[in-house]
Protein 1
Amino acid sequence: MNAKTTGQPPMRRFSLGLQHVLAMYAGAVIVPLIVGSALKLSPEQLAYLVSIDLLTCGIATLLQVWSNRFFGIGLPVVLGCTFTAVGPMIAIGSQHGISTVYGAILAAGLFVVIFAGLFGKLIRFFPPVVTGSVVTIIGLTLIPVALNDMGGGVGNPNFGAPVNLLLSFGVLTLIIAMNRFFTGFWRAISILLGLIAGTFVAALLGKVSFAPFHEASWFHMVHPLYFGMPTFEITSVLTMILVAAVSLVESTGVFLALGKICDRDIRSEDLTRGYRAEGLAIILGGLFNAFPYTTYSQNVGLIQMSGVRTRDVIMTAGGILIVLGLIPKVAALTTLIPTPVLGGATVAMFGMVVSSGIRMLGSQVDLNNHENLLIIACSVGMGLGVTVVPTLFNQLPQAVQILTGNGIVAGSFTAIVLNLVFNLRRKRSVADASQPQGAAN
């Protein structure tokens, strides 16, 4: 069955679209909450960040579903902000300011749009041993953020108070229980339900202020460049380009999986249009002061479960996200979540990022190969080491610090270089050995 544009009655289409929104909602709102909290945004700024993220998720989804000769893969995909960008955005914003974050996002989006046609050729520099290492590094660097939130947040005078630990571990326990005893849709929204339950308990304990919700308006318009004019810093730009490249590798897997589900052959031209749509979505994220966007894999599971592969359902989901993004009251509700509650959920989510990287390495990489193990060991070690000891390369020239000043860049650069040294050399050796004697004469 091919992915069709229409085919569902209006009410059924709306309910199916809403189900897609619920499946990705926790992931969509938790990224701005984590980044905004880490960068010390005000409640008003945080509410804007959440609402503009929801709206941009909807627009990005429609860009990908509306296929044409220039952009859009035309598959039933939902786009959301990528978790891969959380660590880099926090690091860039903390060191250079939030305007540099959006300068880097804009540059990354332009890079993807311009090189979408060439990315199919560049993808060989990002085999599973590289992407798996990068995703693992990103997850490991995020874990301290989650643990700080569990205690109540950095600088909190009551950091580690029993009530904070009770809330955070309570949320984590509920999420684990739901994943143990439920399947399908309920398991898919376990994070969302954990956040809701934790916030409810925190409200009973007097730990929730409803002032941001009361002060928020019912409707607002988009404010491009809400946080000011973007600024550009080379290390930050390289970091975000790397994030975009990793996200495209992940999206490629989703595209190919959906192609099989929808009985459609995915060609290189389709991938190029898909990459270009994601690049446009990243540019929108930079202009609207939102996030880089990627294809969400959790919605693929929902398509498999429901058996509904029509694009009209995804268009409806995109429309719902846009409407939610225009209602600040909805965004303000999510900002009521106390920091310990958020920490309890993010321990599981960030741990899953690490698990995702390990799964990529375990299922797609030959771990019996000593050279692959060395690539993983050195890249993860370098990435985590630079994150823990960021002053190690401070006395080197500025040009060198472009590659060494950020743990994700340092680890990823190590993985790419070692993959070239070991695996590409081996491929050439095998190719040469397979040639008949005298073939080169």
Protein 2
Amino acid sequence: MLGLAIPAPAGTFPLTTSAINVSGSFLLGLLVGLGARHGLPVQVMTIVGAGFCGACTTFSTFSDDLVHLCEKGQVRQSLLYAVASLSVGPAAAAARLALGAL
């Protein structure tokens, strides 16, 4: 929804999708960290994490954006986008998980 409200121009770095995915990863880290801290069952954390955070993030849009960048011949941007998405998202989740454990 946010991607439709604030679309990135065609052929440019998909900043909106990146922001959505990183914030969803951060939120997942928060939920898991707080859930573990307060003794929530793993099943509850899985449902909330996969259900809510999975709905929040946009892996299919990430894939679509990546393909469009490649089709436009923007190999450097597509590699940057893939590496950034696959490293910054998990890093955000790990950082928030660590903060949630405090």
Protein 3
Amino acid sequence: MCTVGDLLTERAVLGVIATLAVLGLFVMLCRARRVSTSVEDAVMDMLDRMSRASSDLRAGLTEEAANKATPHLREMLRCVAVAITDEEGTVLSWDGGANDHYEYLRDTVARAINNCHKEHVDHRKLGCELQGPCSLHSVVVVPLVVEGDVAGTLIVVSGVASKRQIRMAEETARFVSTQLELEVVQKQRQALAQAEVKALRAQISPHFVYNALNTISSLIRTDPSHARELLQEFAEFTRYSFRTDGLFTTLADELTNIHRYLTIEQARYGSRLNVRLRIAPEVLQVVLPFLVLQPLVENAVRHGLAKKPGGGMLTITAEDNGNEALISVEDDGVGMDPERLDDIKDAHQTGAHVGIGNINDRMRTVFGVEYALVVETAPNAGTKVILNVPKFARNVLPNLNIGSQMSDEPMTNEQPAIRA
């Protein structure tokens, strides 16, 4: 027969067991948490090191960039030393110990460069004459390959020879090579962007320059003061449009140049060209690709309003849209069949619209595919081109040498740019 004392004893034992089980589970969770936290910290540290090294290497394989990157790479690899050489085997940077051993590594580095293959050598084969223990036990030399060519080598000096260290050296070299290739791509991208701007200038200049000079020359005798004003506007327009520095500008500067363009065109078309600006002042400092709006305005004038009997209205709108500026160029001219655009990216190749494909490509390249142009058009219904421009984008900065020359007078929703 079970007594109350027996029940209490059994419950006490069960309580102790349950308590120990809970304590054991708590300890396990705490230990797991400590391990997890340690791993998380290590991963965060690794990511931080990689981020810092990558930003340094984006400047190219220079001595300065190598000096900044090697400390981070050595911390990532937890090794004795990390070095980077150029394509001729000259050391650009050596971070860590055993740097006096490079003389023993010259042949190894040369083989890695010539054969475009990693080289692994241990201390016994180096001919080291150091008396006593040497911190250099193993060396891995991995070529840095950029676009198929050896740009240099990564040297990893370890205190212990292991397959794991060799694999980590290879992966780190691949990481470094990728960053160097991205630097090359960035340079090519900038060169392409410059070429695209030059292409836009070539498209703008032939017809507009000829017509502008004709308009000005026709006024020299009848209205010399007006001719002088137009000539000044033309000079400022060409100075801005044909500048050689900077791939980006502010909306304010772009609108100032458009004002010059429209001043000249209105002298040519007279009352047939009416212009309306709807500009929110808070978006005037938004940065966008250089010469991205003027060609759209020129298209509206040439292909929309000039072909419409009696002309019409050109409306330029820039609105605050949260993290973006919503910009549009609209005319109520003759419009076109949307199928004539034949995919907007190719429209500029046929001459149908000045630079429209070029502008579309630049918007997509700079900001992303989601920032492609949107075109709304139909026969006898005018044309509207819409741009979404992010207010902030990485590496998109205006050319500070060209200051904004917009009027201090704030633009309201119905302020005309030019009065007939």
Protein 4
Amino acid sequence: MKPRGAPRGEVSIQPPPGYYGAGGAEPDATQRGLILDWVVSRRIAAGWRVESRSGSQAVLVRGQPLNHVLHALLTVFSCCAWGLVWAVLAATNKVERIALTVDVQGQVVTVGAP
């Protein structure tokens, strides 16, 4: 359970110590994949979804694009009354993308994707 006042959606992205190689050795490709799986599962629990995934990289997305065709039809059928709602939704809607990469040392690097 998160403590009160903790920002929503913010989670630790470093895996627990057991995911790294014994004796501080650099993780191999399998261990880096496990580290990425662990981080991705934490992000999914925080509301993100996986857009693409490779061996040591994943692109995650939060938010949904706006369905402009539906809103245009609603605006036409409501004699332009729905246009105000559509404008507010278009102004406040945002889709976030991040790329997570596990480097050869097993550290997770997060980069904002366009």
